[in-house]
Amino acid sequence: MSPAHSHDHGDHVHETGPHGTGHVFHPGHADLHGITVVVELQAGGLYVGRYHEETPSGLLLHDAAQWTPGSAVATPAEFVARMLKFGVRADHRHVVVPGADVRQVSRLVEWSGGK
Amino acid sequence: MPYDPRMVQPMREEMTRMGVRELQTVPDVDAAMSDTQGTTLVFINSVCGCAAGTARPGLSLALKHATRPRNILTVFAGQDVDATARARQFFSDYAPSSPSVALLRDGEVVHFVHRHMIEGRSPQQIAADLTAAFDQHCTPSAV
């Protein structure tokens, strides 16, 4: 796997508009590309990770943390609050979430607790 | 595996042009971070245009503010891997991401800007966040 998908790399270098100084590698990604999102699952769990793209297999996230019901962190809200304060401690370098399993995708900084 | 050094050189120079001291080795980091007195900002640089493309200009704007940290340092994630890992040990409570910014006062983290706080924001917004932290933590009365 290319190192371009770790926290510390990124093959998603692209033009960042009039304010930025990014360099074009491969423009044309989805709006959420490169953005840290909360992916809530139909079954009740969630992932927090960096959105890469939607593939035929599902939604590809990089450096994703996972919360499952019954885990040590009691609620999704506590889990997400921890991510917001201390950053995303990745459980999965890469994960593909099947589209049928996804209930909602939100930007981490805009997550409203699954409401 | 780091990118071609020629490709990332402009990203390094963008930092040094604004007066930030680049740390490329573990001894560089240890020497710089051994001075824990007062305030130190560490910018974790990145090739990621999604976020670093606005974070660097945001820091540049912030450093024009009257109040600023005493030491302003940078390491380049994914490029100077050992130096970055060493720098992160000084704020190991925080998950690694890049770009990101740590502000330390007397060796303790007092403000942290994660990558997710940078994504999708303008340099002006990033600068506003940083300068608010500078005003809170870098004034003589705060140190």
Q: What's the number of helices of chain B?
A: 5
Strand order of the largest sheet of chain A: 4-3-2-1-5
Distance between the termini of chain B: 39 Å
- Strand content bin of chain A: 25-35%
Secondary-structure element order of chain A, N to C: EEEHEE
What's the average pLDDT of chain B? 94
Inertia-based shape of chain B = globular
Strand content bin of chain B:
15-25%
Spatial strand order of the main sheet of chain B: 1-3-2-4-5
Question: What would the principal axes of the Cα set say about the shape of chain A?
Answer: globular
Largest sheet of chain A: 5 strands, antiparallel
Secondary structure class of chain B reads alpha/beta
Q: What is the β-strand count of chain A? A: 5
Oligomeric state of shown chains: heterodimer
Largest interface in this structure:
A-B, 33 and 37 residues
Mean pLDDT of chain A, to the nearest integer, reads 80
- The portion of residues assigned to helices of chain B is 25-40%
Count of DSSP strands of chain B: 5
- Biggest β-sheet strands, sense, barrel of chain B: 5 strands, mixed
